[in-house]
Design a protein that fits this description.
4-stranded parallel sheet; alpha/beta; Rossmann fold
């Protein structure tokens, strides 16, 4: 066990459970559903957030960094998770937030701030250039030497972490589904599959077709090769990132009533809504065994 793992042992619990769900809406079409409860890994650093952070935190520590700098929107779970992990492990943290500052802070940013994260803001035009050398250099000048994590935490090291999820599934399956914001989780899952198994990511933001290039880039960065055993569905973003509609809210309420699981509306609710809609439209062969990742 690495030093990072050892110090996080009380906060992070792996492997996460895989639970079978029975729902007549899927049963009617012969689709068998299990959910991978990555949302139960940690209340502070849930699901794919810990998987993406783990190897990056090891790299930051081994390279002598004491400060993490990362990017995200105002509702970013990655921002929250980085703040919590940094506080627990003794890293200072800086969150670069897209758009203008609004007060009072929403729950996500208030949480990050309460856990020691320094928040700074970039206008949307500059934020689109956040990966360019001059923008990163200016942030380093302002905040000192930082280990820079990309938006959503997705890079080659993160993909190595998300790939480990597949090895925790001890039952046979045909398809793994996940919500997709930056492509890191989908890239890792797909890279770890074998045989005819496939992965399906549901884009949670509008105009998500670019994620196809991102998944390939991330796989190349992590493993030196890209796979073709995955797809991205761009039809269930409900208006864009962190946007919702009454139909999605109704789905969340109904799913909670049926299964006792309250879905996150930014990510996993869109993924499961899309999964159920595809099943209703006859998009899966009878007998298809699906694992949906909740994170």
């Amino acid at each position: 066990m690495s030093s990072i793992e050892d110090r996080m042992a009380g906060l992070v619990k792996l492997p996460s459970p895989v639970v079978e769900l029975h729902d007549e809406r899927l049963d009617h079409h012969g689709v068998h559903l299990r959910v991978k409860r990555d949302d139960l890994i940690s209340s502070d650093i849930p699901g794919n957030k810990w998987r993406k952070l783990r190897y990056n935190l090891e790299a930051a520590e081994s390279q002598g960094f004491t400060r993490l700098l990362t990017f995200g929107g105002a509702y970013s779970n990655h921002i929250r998770a980085t703040a919590a992990a940094g506080e627990h492990l003794g890293f200072e943290t800086v969150g670069v937030i897209r758009g203008e500052k609004h007060e009072p802070l929403n729950d996500s940013l208030a949480y990050a701030s309460a856990h020691g994260m320094t928040l700074t803001y970039l206008d949307r035009t500059t934020y689109r250039r956040k990966d360019e050398t001059d923008v990163v250099a200016e942030l380093n000048r302002e905040f000192g030497p930082c280990y820079v994590l990309p938006e959503g935490g997705s890079n080659g090291l993160a993909v190595r972490g998300t790939a480990e999820l597949v090895g925790e599934i001890a039952t046979d399956f045909d398809l793994v589904c996940c919500a997709t914001g930056t492509g890191g989780t989908l890239a890792g899952i797909a890279a770890a599959l074998s045989g005819p198994q496939r992965a399906l990511g549901f884009a949670v933001l509008k105009g998500g077709r670019f994620l196809e290039d991102e998944v390939r880039r991330l796989q190349l960065d992590a493993f030196g090769a890209a796979t073709t055993n995955w797809d991205v569905d761009v039809d269930f973003h409900f208006g864009g990132y962190a946007k919702r509609r009454p139909t999605l809210d109704s789905f969340i309420e109904d799913f909670s009533d049926r299964h006792g699981i309250t879905l996150d509306w930014v990510y996993e609710a869109k993924m499961l809504y899309g999964l159920f809609a595809r099943a209703e439209a006859g998009g899966f062969k009878p007998g298809t065994r699906v694992v949906a990742v909740l994170s």
